Amino acid sequence: MKKDIEIPEVKNVTLAVVREKNVLDQDEWKVYLINNNEFEIENTLVVSRGYGEKEGEEQRTSVLRHFLQTVPAKSTMLIEPIDSKVLHLNNEYWVSYYIGSQIYDKRFVFVPDTICEENLVFIQELEKEGVLHS
Questions:
Q1: What's this model's pTM, rounded to 2 decimal places?
Q2: Is 132 within 8 Å of 125 (Cβ atoms)?
Q3: On the CB side of 81, how many CA atoms lie within 13 Å of its CA?
């Protein structure tokens, strides 16, 4: 039954939202997957969506799916740019991947207004400032 299902713990895999300059020297935000393991992760699927309220009205973004064949050990991969107009929403990323034949998954949620200047930290893996999910 439910108690017999083994749910492995996700370790050393996280997300970061980084502010970068585009070719027009304007700020844009991008979401990265960080694999800090000593081994690669495979067949990674990231499902992203935004949801919440603005001025009492419910808002939702489109659901996007991103597939990353292999994320090498000790590396980062770009998932998607994120529009600053949706930072007031919950921005959810459901990450599923394989290590060998075992599947791992974890939901990462950046709650409203946490992706902002005040929460920027230096992210060593990306050598940039951003908001690191804990």
A1: 0.91
A2: no
A3: 8
Residue 3 has pLDDT above 90, yes or no: no
CATH number of the structural domain 2-103: 2.60.40
Contacts of 104 (CB under 8 A, 6+ apart): 8, 10, 13, 41, 96, 97, 98
Res 1: pLDDT: 62
122: burial class by Cβ within 10 Å (0-12, 13-18, 19+)?
exposed
Looking from the CA of 20 toward its CB, the CA atoms found within 13 Å total 18
Domain residue ranges of the chain, discontinuous segments joined by +: 2-103
Which are the contacts of 34, defined by CB distance < 8 A and separation ≥ 6? 13, 14, 15, 16, 76, 123, 125, 126
C-alpha distances in Å from residue 10, one per residue of 32, 118, 119, 123, 130: 17, 28, 24, 20, 22
Q: Which backbone phi and psi does 113 adopt, to 5 degrees?
A: 60, 20
Chain segment 48-100, per-residue pLDDT in tens: 999 999 888 999 999 999 999 999 999 999 999 999 999 999 999 999 999 99
